[in-house]
Amino acid sequence: MVGQVRDRTAAARQTSFWIVAATLGLFLFAAAAPSPLYAVYAAKFRFSAIVLTEVFAVYALALLFALLLTGSLSDSLGRKPVILAALAIELVSMFMFVFATSVEWLFAARITQGIATGLATSPLAASFVDIQSPEHPTLAPTVNGATPIAGLAFGALTSAALVQYGPYPLSLVYWFLIAGFAVAAVGIALMSEPSTARAALRVLPRVGVEPAVRPAFLAALAILIAGWAVGGFYLSLGPSLVLLLAQTSNRLLGGLAIFVLCGVGAASIVAARSWPADRSMSRGATALVAGLLLSLAAIFAGSPALFTVSTAITGVGFGIAWLGVLRSLILRASPTGRGALLAAVFIVAYVSFAVPAVVAGYLVTRIGLHDAALWYGAAVGLLAVAGLAGTRLVSRPVG
């Protein structure tokens, strides 16, 4: 009898774990869904490339704002209530996309979506740790690292396929997401609360890097910025660049670029999950530099095939370097300083995700997409080289 109860409890925890994973993946799936549509929106609502990147960037900034203000909320109120609130806000944003009639609607929808994702990020990540099986201690960090990037990959590809081949190109993907989030809400509501412990409610966010961690943080800064700046470029202007290189209007190819970058990145995280942090950072930085150099050659030559290969190599670097940065810094931090450290890491990541993309949009309006991509890739490549050098400065090995 005791064994049966234990088995049922373990099965329930496993089911809850994958409900949480699916919900997190769905949030990031939705985050990438508008990317293949940006050029369509731009043509319909008549706005420039810089406005396009601003529509992209406000999502990341709203997400960051919500994450900082609500990151510890689930420690006080419980995981389920905060996740359900985030799902409700996300559903509102999906309906805003469906009924968008102007660029102002797009800004409002992206801001709402960013708030929802920021609100959901912390309780979903914490739930992985709360309910993971003791027999698989590496499962939570692996799934937590790979699921968001995989969600971005499949969101971009699915959205691009629906835009190219499905009816109602500006709304069909959002109706699918509305159904998906509704199912996710039911799953979250039915599962047990992942954490019964409660902490005092914090109003102000905690952000900071402990003195012992600062050398490693500074050494990792360049590669952290470079990796997320690459992600921001691909999710904002990547589809348009691929269509320019391939001289086609097939939106599926644009979504494929994001899929290759993020899909390969997610697979790389899983493949390198047992690597020491310093190896992940070093090899990730090397792959990122190589991928960016090859991307510059592909753009200069106008070769979509070479650009696809370079995107895959860049994706390896993005995924492994991100894994290495997280493990290197978290393992150096004290238990009481990890929350503040992660807040600092995500500030850098999301600002790097959003701001350089807006700069790229400005360059597009001045010198065109082709030349802007060359300048952007060169700048990020220099950052990646600096990041590669920075990884050599982290001398103390961390597991």
What is the makeup of the main sheet?
none
Strand content: under 5%
Q: Can you tell me the overall shape?
A: globular
**Cα-atom Rg, whole angstroms?**
20 Å
Q: What string gives the helices and strands in order?
A: HHHHHHHHHHHHHHH
Helix % is over 70%
What does this structure look like?
The protein is mostly helical. The radius of gyration is 20 Å and the shape is globular. It has helices spanning 2-32, 38-45, 49-70, 73-77, 79-98, 103-131, 139-165, 172-190, 214-236, 238-246, 251-271, 277-301, 304-332, 338-367, 369-393. Helix content is 81%, strand content 0%. It contains 15 helices and no strands.
Summarize the model shown.
81% of the residues lie in helices and 0% in strands. With 399 residues, the chain is an all-alpha fold.
Produce the secondary structure layout.
Elements: H1 2-32, H2 38-45, H3 49-70, H4 73-77, H5 79-98, H6 103-131, H7 139-165, H8 172-190, H9 214-236, H10 238-246, H11 251-271, H12 277-301, H13 304-332, H14 338-367, H15 369-393
Top keywords for this entry?
399 residues, 15 helices, 0% strand, mainly alpha
